[in-house]
Amino acid sequence: MSGVRTRLLQASGASGLSLIARLLEQFLLVPVLLTAWSVELFGEWLLIAAIPIYLSLLDFGVVQSGSNELAKRAGDNDDDGVRRFFRDYTSFFLIWSIILFAILSALVASSPVADWLSLERIGQTDAQIIFVLLIAGTLLSHNALALIGGMRAKKIFPAGLTTRALGAFLRVGLAFVAVALLDYGPIALAAILLGTRILEYAILALILAGRGLTVPINPFRKRQEKLRQFVTSGLEFLLFPLAQSLILQGAIVVIGFTLGAAAVAIFATHRTLSRATSQAVQLVVIPLRAESGLLQDEASRPELAAILLSASRLTFWAALACAALLLLFGAPIFALWTSGKIAFMPALFAGLILATILEAVWTVASSIRLGSNRHRPLAWSYLAVSVLAFALMVLFAANLGLTAIPLALIIGEVLMVAITIPLTVAVLDLRSRDYIAALLTFPAKEIGVLANHLAGRRG
Q1: 116-170 pLDDT, tens per residue?
Q2: How far apart are CA 321 and CA 340, in angstroms?
Q3: Which of 159, 153, 161, 155 is CA-nearest to residue 83?
Q4: What pTM value is reported for the model?
Q5: Which of 122, 164, 228, 243 has the fewest CB atoms below 10 angstroms from its CB?
Q6: How far apart are alpha carbons 316 and 121 in whole angstroms?
Q7: How far apart are CA 459 and CA 53, in angstroms?
Q8: Angle between helices 376-399 and 228-237 (to 10 degrees)
């Protein structure tokens, strides 16, 4: 097995641990919070927590663009260039985060956020404190992703994923103790989220220092690299979180303003369970995107094409299997998970599952372009499709109710599949029909390779 495929499997294993951590964080927190809090308080927490997610738009895509540049220099064996660029790009983003935090904190302190969100269970002062803590945690999380870009260049990407996963495990444990055992409220939960992000960042910095990539102590030091071109390239990466926020967090906001906080809790719990399929796809997407940045030369194109076909086939069938299990056992899992406090809606759940399967198809294919700074056509297409889906959600929520929201998502995902496949196969000298045929072929070979690899590890 080639070194690339070995790294992919190792990164997939680390992604698996991250997946388990994310699922625990998403699924265990819901029953804990619903048991300790009322449905209305839980819905208001979701409303507040959804807003800071939009901060991902304000990194101007520098994190992803810079990470791809680090991977390219590592692929060219430019160690000095990697160290120089890493120092400048991490310090630049840290300075930007500090400035952004100061501005946003001042805005929150002077704004009636509780009135704006029509909060009844969470008061004005508490809402402001929660916002500031969540803003700090989100910004710190993005700075940690910049450090993981350095790990990608040093080919220790799994170590970064593992560190993030352990941080998620810690968050779940501390949240359970604070909320379920000590009866703390949303402020304490926000503080736990921030504290664990600080710890993650420190551990990542220490690991990198051991590999010769030191995070600058003084972020205001004079830079050696010109980062303007990466800001320009990154601005188009910005379109991806913007588009996804319109679909994911946008749905929460639309439902909250149209149907109320209780409807937010209903939709968010159904969507979280349905997106278990999407979470599983990240086992392949994250490593594939990381490796595609290291394989940008023409000689590596056939290998990258073969890897994409295998990865797409494996993830598509895995998504179908996961979706089938959710359709069969979703109702009892949901009842147990929510302690019976939220009624299960089969039509809503089935529509959300179909949307996640379609999302999985184009997300895997897009990894090739997103991992090598060739993302422009996909970025603008995703934004246009998401604007359309958001408009449809507004229309459907006001006129057809909650169960019609998935239809807007399905329309958007179908369009992205039709756009992404031709754009991706063109980069790898493939044909769309060959890619689709590979996608629909049962991955017996890939399963055999994985089984042999696992058997070899046990041996």
Answers
A1: 877 888 888 888 899 899 999 988 888 888 888 888 778 787 888 788 888 888 8
A2: 26
A3: 153
A4: 0.64
A5: 228
A6: 43
A7: 44
A8: 40
